[in-house]
Amino acid sequence: MPEVRKGHIAFQPDERPDLQTAREWLPQYSVLWDAIEAELRDARSYLFSQPNETRRQHTEFLSTPPY
Fold this sequence. Notes:
By secondary structure, the protein is mostly helical. The protein has a domain at 18-62. The protein has three helices and no strands. The chain is elongated, with a radius of gyration of 15 Å.
């Protein structure tokens, strides 16, 4: 991507890789992938501590699969 700053990472919205694929494609950013994984784990943990209605609204809003 010659038009962006060095270190910039971007994926097309319809071609976004999952975290494991991103790790395989760009292993030099392992510290970033670890941080993203930790933040996702914390967010899921927090979400599961919430009432069912809050989890449903969150899932519906983000169109994410329920975990």
